[in-house]
Amino acid sequence: MPGPIKRRLTRDEKRQETKEKLLRSAEQLFNQGGYEKASVDLIAENAGFSKGAFYSNFESKEAIFLALLESNKRRSIEALEDLLAREMSTEELLLAIRNHQSGRDSDFDFTRLAIEFALQASRDPTFAKAYVKLNRYFRDSMIGVLEKLYAKLGRIPPAPLKDLADILIGSITGLLLQAADSPANVRKRLISEATFLILGISAEPPAAKAK
């Protein structure tokens, strides 16, 4: 018997499929050789399209990198919010956060590329504006996550949440640069430990006050 007839994609669906393939191609090439080595021609060819197809979906290489960075940051925030929405003990929650920070599925390589793009954006006023806007969204989202975290743990933040978010983001960036030559598992562990130290939390419950 003949198999089921495959539904033909609409024009919008084909366009979205092309866009997603280009994004996957760009992320692969950025992770393999860095931002500078991944040309528009290579991104398009790797995805199986012409350069014209690339420019039909993205204005430039900077634009596709910015789209990837935004998607990456949104996934990170959504993953943390998903953890906070689950019913689990304090120890289970903190372990889940630690695993999120240092696990195999973390976007570690992409985070390093984000640093590279930050330097690129500092030299391009147009994309610098978009980059600043994206970072503002990420910081505000992180503040919201921290607020939910401390409320769920029943603990008081050691500093204003805005300051904690800024220190946390800045520290992770610094560790990525400082430990650039260390094995990935070492860098991930450092970032995980730094996160818990900055937030002033651990798997241990706070000590009971002496009566």
List the helices and strands and how they pair.
Blueprint: H1 11-33, H2 40-47, H3 51-57, H4 61-85, H5 90-102, H6 108-121, H7 125-153, H8 161-178, H9 184-199
Helix pairs in contact: 1-2, 1-4, 4-5, 4-7, 5-9, 7-8, 8-9
Determine the oligomeric state from the structure: single chain
Residue fraction in strands = under 5%
Helix percentage range: over 70%
* Element string (H = helix, E = strand): HHHHHHHHH
Largest sheet: none
Number of strands: 0
Main structural class: mainly alpha
Count of discrete domains: 2
Q: Assign the CATH class of the largest domain.
A: Mainly Alpha
Structural overview:
The protein has 211 residues and is mostly helical. The protein has helices at residues 11-33, 40-47, 51-57, 61-85, 90-102, 108-121, 125-153, 161-178, 184-199. Helix content is 73%, strand content 0%. Mean pLDDT is 83; it is low at 205-211.
In short:
The chain is mostly helical. It folds into 2 domains: 50 residues, Arc Repressor Mutant, subunit A, CATH 1.10.10.60; 135 residues, Tetracycline Repressor, domain 2 (Orthogonal Bundle).
Output the keywords.
single chain; 211 residues; mainly alpha; Arc Repressor Mutant, subunit A; Tetracycline Repressor, domain 2; 2 domains; 9 helices; 73% helix
